[in-house]
Amino acid sequence: MDLSVQQGLPFGQNCDVLVLPITKGAKFRKWLDPKIATQIEADGFEGNLGEWLCLPSYGLMKAKKVALLGVGERSALTNDILRRAGGLLSKRTREAKAKTVATSLLGVTFGELPLREGVEAFTEGVLLAAYGFHPYHKKQAEKHAKSSLKSLTVFEERKALLATYERAFYEAAVLSEATCLSRDLVNTPSQDMYPLRMADIAKEIADGSKQISLKILDRDRMERLKMDAALAVARGSTHEPVGVHLVYKPKGKAKKRIAIVGKAVTFDSGGLSIKPADGMMSMKIDMAGAASVLGVFKALQSITPDVEVHGIFLAVENMPSGHAYRPGDVVRAMNGTTIEVLNTDAEGRVTLADALSYAATFEPDAVIDLATLTGACVVALGEEIAGAMGNDRRLLDRVRLASEEAGEAIWELPMPPSYEDHVKSKIADVKNIGAKGQAGAISAALFLKHFVPAGLPWVHLDIAGPAYTEREARPDMPVGGTGFGVRALVRYLQGL
Length: 496
Ligand code: BES
Ligand code: ZN
Ligand code: ZN
Fold this sequence. Notes:
Elements: E1 2-7, E2 17-22, H1 34-42, E3 52-56, E4 65-70, H2 79-95, E5 100-104, H3 115-129, H4 138-147, E6 151-156, H5 162-187, H6 195-207, E7 212-217, H7 219-224, H8 228-234, E8 242-248, E9 257-268, H9 277-280, H10 288-300, E10 308-318, E11 330-332, E12 338-340, H11 347-360, E13 366-371, H12 375-381, E14 386-390, H13 393-406, E15 410-412, E16 430-431, H14 440-448, E17 458-462, E18 468-469, E19 480-481, H15 486-494
Parallel strand pairs: 1-6, 2-4, 2-5, 5-6, 9-10, 9-13, 12-16, 13-17, 14-15
Antiparallel strand pairs: 3-4, 7-8, 8-10, 11-12, 14-17, 18-19
The structure holds ligand BES and zinc ion (2 copies).
């Protein structure tokens, strides 16, 4: 899609649809041909959030159609509402089979919102809603390609602001592309998105940037590093496990060193503690944490913050077989901590035990992990909100701020010391399940805490809910993988 800004007003623009986002009660009559304005009033357009009214212009304007897009009360306007509005513009103009669209934000008063962020959110919405995943569906792929928008021209009267628009477009394009990469990886069936394939994607990213290097940990190397926990999970599968360690280094001096770690279970059958059929259907998404780590690195190619970033994941497939690890087995993680495996379906934390231990050896200033870790977190917070837990107030606050800016909701859950015995084992240092039917997301985090050295600031994001969506709750988030976490983490890294 060709995205551009032009100085002036959009009303004389030759295009398929002219879209005007409008706050509630804004006076649009002054901009439009009186006949069209009268028709819009007669149709009862109010400007409520999500309202869309599209009319033919009957040759009264150069645009073939004019559409009004409601964004709700002016006082309630946020960047996230603008993101939704951008998404709606994308979706509705696609439905209207438009190829060329002109728009302007003049009907949206920015109030307290900084312009750059508002434009960026709006554009992100447009681009994220244009996403489709159809490599396995020829007809859909053709339909999608045919209906996609060719150009979006945004009009702005104030010349001094044009550069701000350009900057916002650039960031929105980078972040959307990175988010959509993460979505693609999550949406790809496990038969094609197996551990070594994830390492290939990492290689493609590292090859695309002089500032990104890649270390691959093959099985031998994982054995030498004593990653026996992750290796135990991988044993049931015919797919080779592989560790990925990406490093981004800024050109100048790095202000900080940050490690981001992702859960990378390319398929989670549950292993010998096998999942019921219904619970297994979506488990190709169990590498979404790592997919978002890859998305972040994709963005780092273009948005080059002054921090050193380590992206780490241990990719495995969790399958039952004669070689599979068993309930009752005790495995030793890289940091020496022993784990009693009581449920092979609580495999994510077992792989993260090694990934976090490995990350800590590089002595980062902070570690953030993303993992589709527990069904309990979905029960607690639903599909739209990730659970956040950690050991450092400042880091938790920073991550929350970044997630707010990105429009990716997180909510903090406590890690009470009194729950630590939920993961105590009689025969090993820890066990991989908590108390039955209680605080499942928290006990998973308390388990992970055993693999983060004391004093290392750490945040764990349980993204089991928002990593993918089965219904389109908002137009910028089509069904399937969402790419959750990419934008929040990039924002966090930018803000350091
Ligand atoms: N990958 C699942 C968690 C999950 C569930 C992600 C639903 C996305 C949607 C994880 O490996 C798992 O199976 N967790 C178990 C842990 C339990 C056995 C302690 C769970 O949540 O039931
Ligand atoms: Zn599992
Ligand atoms: Zn899992």
